[in-house]
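Quick start: what a row looks like.
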Amino acid sequence: MSATARSSGCTTIEEALMAEVSPGRARQVPLRHALPRLARDPLGALVHYANEGDGEIVQLNLGTFRPYLVTHPEHLQQILRDRVTYIRDGNSMLWRSVRRAVGDAILVTEGAQWESSRDTLQPLFTAKRAETLVDRMAAAIAEAVDALDAPARAGQAVDAMTLMSQIVCQATTRVLFGRKIPLSDALQIYAHLGTITRTMVPRLLAPGMPYWVPLPGDRAFRAAVQGIDALVLPIIRKERANPGDGDDIIATLCRPRADGSRASEESVRSDLIAMFSTANETTIGVLSWLFPVLEKHPDVAERLYAEVDEVVGVGGTVQRAHIPQLRYSRMVLDEMLRLWPAGWTIPRTAVGEQVLGGVRIESGATILVSPFATQRMSAFWERPDVFDPQRFAPDRPKRQYRYSYFPFGGGPHQCIGQYLFLLEAPIIMATLLSRFRFRLGQPADLTPRIGASLRPRSSTLTLLRRDSVPAS
């Protein structure tokens, strides 16, 4: 029996069927409850209302903005696989800030423009091609980790987020962007994107506020966008003037398309920033949880170190053949993706009046799809708040619902870089752990900071070379 039938108190099959064919209203969360809870703790509020609704569709009254929170995997599958009825609307309240940062990019658009960008970039991110990049990526990561020897020997504390940013940016700029973006520029771009994600938060929490009303962070947001343009536009103009036959993202975006047309400078800029953000933000954001997780869970840390020692060896070099053998590493990674997915919310807009889960959805309504909420629901996960990589063990029973776990989204808009991420992230983990143990400068805190992606609280760490410090 559906959630709608249960909530209506149906006791017979006839009554249940009547509930199915007579759409009703979603359960309402009044303004006096929804607004304070969301303002105080947006992530906790989403999980609270998801669990309280037990998979039913819930409408949140936020004044002039009344989105529907959809959390049941069956409903999510219907939404995410349908890019005609439930669309990404760049003009909607929740997408507007993203669009101001990246323009009409592959992350925001629909229709012909999205299809053109997707068709152009998709061949760069297939599983087969991702496999061909492993050796280059492993070499770039190893070189970046080599640079950590100096602070480790000196006993110098380093910022954990900066460390991960340098490793990931070096790998992506070399492998995906053909060394056309210098590492120093890449780190500046990433810093600007970090400013953008922080300063978007007031707009995300007040989606109905018009842009002529200033909010905290607006000025820094604009400065960050201008800073990015100052770095990437000269690179784009140089490449467009003499597009090569390279297999990197910049060359691919600047070359004429199959039909002879060329993307505009603005379109190239938008897709380039979107791909730079996705390639770096997803990996940095998820792997930023590695150190606090291992500090909080020493049993997980020891098992992870034991696997790396067995497969790679202390101080060893990660190779392509090692990746399938790093099974526990993949389980740890999957659990980090469950608890702290790169995209914590995926808004959609209903095109025309719809019926979803027995609930009437009005035309133009905003639908909140949240991997963070669904992946922490007690209806679909045992002990959902506990970090437990064993739930992803190969011998565990298959999950009942495909969309109870969807850290990369789903359907046509599923993240095109997921295959590359699932190769890059284990290489980074194994390379770091084969060479170093670490000591956090502050107690580990697994409370996420909200932004475009989820991050742990900032922390420093001291790296301890494994060839000179006994295991503890």
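That is the whole record. The chain has a mean pLDDT of 87. The longest helix spans residues 218-241.
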